[in-house]
Please model this.
Amino acid sequence: MSYIKDLRAKVGNDNIIVNACAVVIVNNNNQILLQKRSDNLLWGLPGGLLEIEETITQAAIREVKEETNLDVELIRFLGVFNNPFMRWRKKDRARIISFAFFGELKSSDLKINDSESKELKYFDYENLPQIHSIDTIEIIEAYYNDKLNLVEGKNYDGEKI
Model:
């Protein structure tokens, strides 16, 4: 049984706080890999909830493999993001604390690997589909803003270097 299922068995649908991870994976055209979720048919980054016995980085690598069949190396930490209003099944409520990473592919056999995904696809930043959560939107923005700052020769505060 998973940590969340164990926790839900004890607290029901009460609002809880959980840790999650997400991984930004891009192709050679700087398009971002998104997963069409089976629970709400909206799009998100590969990632998911932390199990009790694993680290955040272990969870990130595991979730990418489970959802996309890809092996990744976590190259860069993008930050911690907050979603105070996550909902599953309309009753299951949680505040999500998401730890986000940029990952490079170690393998490229992209395929749906579990029942959580309906589709996997790379998207241009300018043509993103409807994203399922505020933290995912903020993670995508952080990746592209940081990428732009690095290209333009700016530091994290937006000052020229």
Summary: The helical segments are 3-11, 56-68, 134-151. The first strand starts at residue 16 and ends at 24. The chain is about 25% helix and 35% strand. The beta strands are 16-24, 32-37, 43-44, 47-49, 72-88, 92-105, 117-123.
